Automatic annotation (TrEMBL):
<dbReference type="InterPro" id="IPR015424">
    <property type="entry name" value="PyrdxlP-dep_Trfase"/>
</dbReference>
<protein>
    <submittedName>
        <fullName>Diaminobutyrate--2-oxoglutarate transaminase</fullName>
        <ecNumber>2.6.1.76</ecNumber>
    </submittedName>
</protein>
<keyword id="KW-0808">Transferase</keyword>
<dbReference type="InterPro" id="IPR005814">
    <property type="entry name" value="Aminotrans_3"/>
</dbReference>
<comment type="similarity">
    <text>Belongs to the class-III pyridoxal-phosphate-dependent aminotransferase family.</text>
</comment>
<dbReference type="GO" id="GO:0045303">
    <property type="term" value="F:diaminobutyrate-2-oxoglutarate transaminase activity"/>
</dbReference>
<dbReference type="InterPro" id="IPR015422">
    <property type="entry name" value="PyrdxlP-dep_Trfase_small"/>
</dbReference>
<dbReference type="InterPro" id="IPR004637">
    <property type="entry name" value="Dat"/>
</dbReference>
<dbReference type="Pfam" id="PF00202">
    <property type="entry name" value="Aminotran_3"/>
</dbReference>
<keyword id="KW-0663">Pyridoxal phosphate</keyword>
<keyword id="KW-0032">Aminotransferase</keyword>
<dbReference type="InterPro" id="IPR015421">
    <property type="entry name" value="PyrdxlP-dep_Trfase_major"/>
</dbReference>
């Protein structure tokens, strides 16, 4: 891969190239499964997976079939929020995979088809339902790019240039053990976090009233693939119940089997009041919904409108992909192949000390790259190494592997493969990844 020629080619494309093209200076010609072919005929393994949207990779036969069938039948393309057999089947299929306690009381709102809009809908819903305004969110979280969703995103660097974002937000510490803000690790840190959070609610001098909701990701994605433990999630659920506060779980990235559970919150057994879904829920076409408990339903007609919330093709592909995931036990495959990949990556960590931590659940995997030339903190964790992570990411590309990066300091390499990968696919990824490490060493 000749970087200069690629960068030059990139410039020849009229499309706005600001973000991902800097990391991946290629032009994509076609894609199938987890393979991408560029315009030069070079093939890459795609572990970026549409930022976690491609549960079955690109152009899976069931996705093609659903689109072809829909078009061959002259099914409506866009119905706003008018119902249709395609929409009905999608709702039934999605509700069929919800945990029973949520399914029995669930209502659904279709949103303009991206995660951000669904987060906005969730914020509005809890504000209307509770009559309160503040949202409690968490450090390192990512919820989207619009005024409200960005305001509740726990990443200062992408907000500082924007004055007057929604202001009623309180950020609480997320249990990121590798860099624990309390200077202790494990269960002790989680107990402290829960204690601190409850204290804010019960102490009349904390200066904060009851919020309209808590919002969290059960596994933070953009924040660096940081899973919250079942103990901590249960603790948050208990606190929110005790103080009558709705809990929104943002499953935009972690949902639909990605973490080895259909929904990431299921590992802990908690049931949220609002569940936000997008990315994989549309079977790789744009779709987003919130599923929420009936008691919150104080919307008036038109409370959350949006032209493209009736995208029938995405509902058809969403149904096909959810069915395929369940019929082919891909949630289990996600857990098994995720464990396999993490175990193999742990072996690489023994060889390459700059791999600070391997994290994740199922096929949502993070590899934190650290600087061992600096001193470790009290917990033995080294500082993040943003530069080296970027070098490895580029080296991966040269070795035929497209992988995502993220985390608070952009020092976490992230794998978001399709859920249907085989062990052989996993081995190929590991082989390319180690070659990438060897070539920068
Ligand atoms: N929430 C989470 C947890 C996400 O990971 C993302 C996207 N990365 C969003 C919300 C926003 O989704 P979208 O980019 O589709 O607006």
């Amino acid at each position: 891969l000749n970087d200069n020629s690629y960068l030059q080619k990139q410039k020849n494309y009229e499309s706005n190239a600001r973000s991902y093209p800097r990391k991946f200076p290629i032009a994509i010609q076609k894609a199938k499964g987890y393979f991408i072919m560029d315009t030069e005929g070079q093939v890459f393994m795609d572990c970026l997976g549409g930022a976690g949207s491609l549960a079955l990779g690109h152009n899976h036969p069931v996705i093609k079939k659903a689109i072809q069938k829909s078009i061959a039948n002259d099914s409506a393309l866009l119905t706003l929020d008018i119902t249709s057999p395609i929409k009905d089947e999608f709702v039934k299929t999605l509700f069929g995979v919800l945990p029973q306690e949520l399914r029995e009381n669930a209502k659904i709102q279709f949103c303009s088809p991206c995660g951000t809009d669904a987060v906005e809908a969730a914020i509005k819903l809890v504000k209307i339902a509770t009559g309160r305004s503040t949202i409690f969110s968490f450090s390192g979280s990512y919820h989207g790019m619009t005024n409200g969703a960005l305001a509740i995103t726990g990443n200062k660097s992408i907000k500082t240039q924007i004055p007057n974002l929604m202001s009623d937000v309180v950020f609480l510490p997320f249990p990121y053990h590798y860099r624990c803000p309390f200077g202790v690790g494990g269960l002790e840190a989680e107990k402290l976090s829960l204690h601190y959070i409850e204290n804010i609610l019960k102490d009349s001098h904390s200066g904060v009233g009851l919020p309209a909701a808590f919002i969290l990701e059960a596994v933070q994605g953009e924040g660096g693939v940081i899973p919250a433990s079942p103990f901590w999630l249960k603790g948050i659920r208990e606190i929110t119940k005790k103080y009558d506060i709705p809990l929104i779980v943002d499953e935009v990235q972690a949902g639909m089997g990605r973490t080895g559970h259909m929904f990431a919150f299921e590992e802990s057994g908690i049931i949220p009041d609002v569940c936000v879904l997008s990315k994989a829920v549309g079977g790789s076409l744009p779709l987003s919904v919130i599923v929420y408990q009936k008691y919150l339903d104080k919307w008036q007609p038109g409370s959350h409108a949006g032209t493209f919330r009736g995208n029938q093709l995405a509902m058809a592909t969403g149904t096909a992909v959810i069915k395929y995931i369940t019929e082919n036990s891909l949630v289990d495959n996600s857990r098994q192949k995720g464990n396999y990949l993490r175990n193999e990556l742990l072996k690489l960590q023994q060889k390459y000390p700059f791999i600070g931590e391997i994290r994740g659940r199922g096929l949502m995997i993070g590899v934190e790259i650290v600087d061992t030339n600096e001193s470790p903190n009290a917990l033995g964790s080294y500082p993040p190494n943003t530069k080296l992570a970027a070098q490895i990411q580029r080296s991966c590309l040269h070795n035929g592997l497209i992988i995502e990066s993220g985390g608070r300091e952009n020092s976490v390499l992230r794998l978001l493969t399709p859920l249907n990968i085989s062990e052989k696919n996993a081995d190929d990824i590991l082989y390319a990844f180690e070659n990438a490490l060897i070539s920068i060493n």
